[in-house]
């Protein structure tokens, strides 16, 4: 019995060892195969990213040649993975553009201001339907206009940038500091363009007013609100309102010919001046007149594009396309036009196709912060211009937006941003 038992135990041990070896072989084989598959997937992903980087790079190079651009800084990611972050061209003659350079973000900050408003809605402190008169009672027509209408630019207030008196004053003194009250007076010196809520027009007046209302609602300056509720939570450490024309170093320098007509310079006379430190105080509400860099611009595209700081309800309100089919052109209003698939204004953001963007253009700078939620594609671009980019009147195109639409079309061929007629 003892011998039999030992034999049985030995047989069991051999069986167990054989089974263990077999399991180990299978496990090892699976591990090797799995590792191999992972390596293959990583190689494919790396190869795709490299291919996409080359595509983006070529789009930029072609765009620089076609658009006569001085510098382009671009950052593109897909689902958080970097495709390309690169600077092209020169900031100034002999000074290469770099990815750490700072520039003005203009209308990108509009999406921050609308986010502040929607956060207050989420906190039940205000409603989008609240009349502006509650906080700005002396403002003309404030008893007819709501906070939501300011944010969506359906208030009917005229754009002070379209006021000839303002244009003359600005071009005469581009370094002048403007107060919100001065800007508002240009925008409210004429009757409402239409009954509030019945049409749409791009109007800087709306967001200067909205900034003042936010300060009254909260008892805090917009700059403080911005840091506490937007820039700080998002970690945008390179985005700030310096409260002056200052741009932190290293600065991307800009040049412009847009004062040519105002200064009555003949078309055959070369004219191209530095506009880097033109005072941007006219562009937006105080506290939101900012500088940034390409990394923060990119991170903004994702944060705003995903509604990171908002409730689902407020995010849906921000990206709503409810204006499509409800707005028209209007005699005497250069910025009134039908909202369409190519351009629909939400609450502080533009919806073009399924992309969410902001696209500032002023003072020799243009930029784009863009996000496609379905593909998690983020595109950030900053542009400056060579002299030949300006026409005989000193006008120029938003080259950053042109580049964005080309890049977006390459990276998301099944969901490209609509191509605008040039």
TrEMBL record:
Please give one Pfam family short name.
Answer: Beta-lactamase
**SUPFAM superfamilies membership:** beta-lactamase/transpeptidase-like (SSF56601)
* Residue stretches making up the Beta-lactamase-related domain: 56-402
Name the coiled-coil region(s).
none
Q: Which InterPro entries match?
A: AmpC-like, Beta-lactam-related, Beta-lactam/transpept-like
The protein's name:
Beta-lactamase
């Amino acid at each position: 019995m003892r011998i039999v038992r030992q034999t049985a135990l030995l047989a069991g041990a051999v069986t167990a060892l054989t089974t263990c070896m077999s399991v180990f072989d299978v496990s090892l084989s699976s591990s090797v195969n799995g590792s191999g598959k992972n390596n293959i997937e990583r190689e494919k992903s790396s190869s795709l990213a490299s291919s996409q980087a080359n595509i983006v790079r070529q789009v930029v190079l072609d765009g620089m040649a076609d658009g006569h651009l001085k510098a382009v800084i671009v950052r593109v990611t897909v689902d958080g993975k970097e495709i390309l972050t690169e600077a092209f061209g020169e900031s100034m003659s002999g000074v290469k553009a770099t990815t750490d350079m700072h520039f003005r973000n203009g209308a990108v900050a509009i999406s921050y201001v609308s986010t502040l408003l929607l956060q207050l809605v989420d906190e039940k402190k205000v409603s989008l339907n609240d009349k502006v008169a509650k906080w700005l009672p002396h403002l003309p027509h404030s008893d007819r206009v709501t906070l939501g209408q300011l944010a969506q630019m359906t208030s009917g207030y005229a754009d002070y940038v379209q006021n000839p008196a303002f244009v003359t004053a600005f071009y005469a003194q581009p370094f002048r500091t403007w107060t919100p009250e001065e800007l508002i007076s240009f925008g409210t010196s004429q009757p409402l363009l239409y009954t509030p809520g019945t049409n749409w027009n791009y109007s800087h007046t709306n967001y200067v007013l909205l900034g003042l209302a936010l300060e009254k609602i909260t008892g805090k300056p917009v700059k403080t609100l911005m840091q506490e509720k937007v820039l700080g939570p998002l970690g945008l450490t390179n985005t700030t309102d310096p409260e002056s024309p200052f741009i932190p170093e290293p600065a991307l320098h800009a040049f412009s010919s847009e004062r040519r007509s105002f200064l009555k310079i003949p078309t055959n006379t070369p004219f191209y001046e530095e506009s880097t430190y033109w005072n941007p105080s006219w562009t937006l509400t105080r506290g939101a007149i900012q500088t940034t860099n390409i990394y923060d611009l990119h991170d903004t595209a994702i944060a705003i594009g995903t509604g990171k700081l908002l409730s689902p309800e407020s995010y849906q309100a921000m990206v709503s396309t409810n204006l499509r089919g409800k707005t028209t052109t209007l005699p005497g209003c250069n910025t009134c036009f039908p909202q369409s698939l190519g351009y629909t204004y939400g609450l502080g953001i533009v919806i073009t196709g399924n992309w969410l963007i902001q696209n500032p253009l002023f003072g020799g700078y243009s930029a784009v912060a863009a996000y496609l939620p379905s593909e998690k594609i983020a595109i950030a671009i900053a542009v400056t211009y060579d002299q030949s980019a300006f026409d005989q009147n000193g006008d120029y195109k938003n080259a950053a937006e042109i580049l964005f639409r080309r890049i977006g079309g390459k990276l998301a061929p099944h969901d490209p941003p609509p191509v605008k007629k040039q």
